[in-house]
Design brief:
418 residues; alpha+beta; BirA Bifunctional Protein, domain 2; Rossmann fold; 3 domains; binds histidyl-adenosine monophosphate
Length: 418
């Protein structure tokens, strides 16, 4: 679990403002769920025999003896909230959330015990146009963030009946080659055989390459839906790779599943993942409701952003240098007046006195473009001295009454065009 330090928070804020704007532009509304839920919710939704539920949940008893868990993901909570507040039945909901999730995993680069997900969940639309919308929304997000080299992997798991049929065939095939299975897969053969397809064990590669593929066992409706989705993606020019091995690590999925992956983050290359989960609302006690969503790992996105772009620092625009008691009092008032007319300007008013030299050092370190200096001389003449910290330019004097206009003009010149 990590602290996010002051030098890094501006990157989080920039990401958060992009998603807020993007979500509004697609008509999605934010939902905020609690960090803690009843343990049972995750066992029933994610699945008893998944890695998350078997090994990774932070579970504890509260003072009443209730079994609670720090949420390992947002989908289950979102469905729980939707049922509880009557948001789902006979309605369309386009929702998003952003916040911390908890999994007791082996920490490594890109895999943490407290991490953050930005997630999107849509309820009440069973047609594949919404599957396409979610994928286009992802593609737009990468574009807006300026991220390159992100690939889309796509698969369909079919209806639950089709999957059950396939499961039988797969288990039969794998049992015939029992001696080639590793310990983990032998266990999964009994509990969650589809997950064996996900195995990264090179010794099993050939066996899995030759295994029967789910696509051949799909029901007609799922196939038609999937064809419509791929046709929409083709029309929109979104590239994808069909990956019949993509099964996802949570039990609630059916039909479309997808992952956005990159080669630039080593083993933790999946930055975003999701799919349909039409059965989950009913399974958790609601009326049958079509559902689809995805979640992305914010740490992974930020790490990719950092490796693809020069790291930008959170700079200040103006540093106000104040020398002596009278200037400090006047300085506070000038600063308030500037903030009144330019709320977006980033300005530090020096506090705590100190020599001109030490204040100028701080001004320079803050990254400010200019220092405004107010000392006794300036105060008497009702003006400040403007010193350019990043340009070779002579300093100049600006009267108190012209100061707001001067800074507004300078600030608008320094803003990158939208
Ligand atoms: P998930 O595949 O478990 O799916 O997680 C989604 C994303 O969260 C991953 O692709 C990864 O980027 C990030 N992530 C997962 N675990 C960690 C970790 N320990 N450290 C850092 N990042 C991590 C879900 O959680 C589903 N709820 C997604 C979904 C939403 N499906 C439908 N709606």
């Amino acid at each position: 679990m990590h602290d996010i330090l002051p030098d890094a928070t501006h990157r989080w804020q920039a990401f958060e403002s992009v998603i807020r704007q993007l979500m509004a532009s697609y008509g999605y509304k934010e939902i905020r769920m609690p960090l803690v839920e009843s343990t049972d919710l995750f066992c029933r939704s994610i699945g008893e025999v998944t890695d998350i539920v078997e090994k990774e949940m932070y579970t504890f008893e509260d003072r009443n003896g209730d079994k609670l868990t720090l949420r390992p993901e947002g989908t289950a909570s979102c469905v729980r909230a939707g049922i509880q507040h009557g948001l789902l039945y006979n309605q369309v909901q386009r929702l998003w959330y952003n916040g911390p999730m908890f999994r007791h995993e082996r920490p490594q680069k890109g895999r943490y015990r407290q991490f953050h997900q930005f997630g999107v969940e849509v309820y009440g639309i069973s047609t594949p146009d919404i599957d396409a919308e979610l994928i286009l929304l992802g593609a737009r997000l990468w574009k807006q963030l300026g991220l390159a080299g992100i690939r889309l992997e796509l698969n369909t798991l079919g209806s639950s009946q089709a999957r059950e049929n396939y499961k039988k065939v797969l288990v039969e095939y794998l049992q015939q080659h029992d001696e080639l299975l590793d310990e983990d897969s032998k266990r999964r053969l009994r509990t969650n055989p589809l997950r064996i397809l996900d195995s990264k064990n090179p010794a099993m590669k050939q066996l899995l390459d030759d295994a029967p593929v789910l696509m051949d066992y799909l029901d007609e409706t799922s196939l038609q839906q999937f064809k419509k989705l791929t046709a929409s993606l083709d029309a929109a020019g979104v590239e994808y790779r069909l990956n019949p091995r993509l099964v996802r690590g949570l039990d609630y999925y059916c039909n479309t599943v997808f992952e956005w992956v990159t080669d630039e983050l080593g083993a933790q290359g999946t930055i975003c993942a999701g799919g349909r989960y039409d059965g989950l609302v009913e399974q958790l006690g609601g009326k049958a409701t079509a559902a689809i969503g995805f979640a992305l790992g914010v740490e992974r996105i930020l790490s990719l952003l950092e490796s693809q772009h020069d790291s930008q620092t959170d700079r200040i625009d103006v540093y106000l240098v104040l020398l002596g008691d009278a200037c400090e009092s006047k300085g506070l008032l000038l600063a308030e007046s500037i903030r009144e007319s330019l709320p977006a300007l980033k300005m530090i008013t020096h506090c705590g006195a100190g020599s001109m030299k030490s204040q100028m050092k701080k001004a320079d370190k803050s990254g400010a473009d200019i220092a405004l200096i107010l000392a006794q001389d300036e105060l008497e003449q009702e003006q400040v001295t403007v010193k350019y910290l990043r340009e070779e330019r002579p300093q100049q004097s600006v009267g108190f009454s012209e100061l707001n206009t001067f800074i507004t003009e300078m600030y608008s010149r320094n803003q990158p065009p939208e």
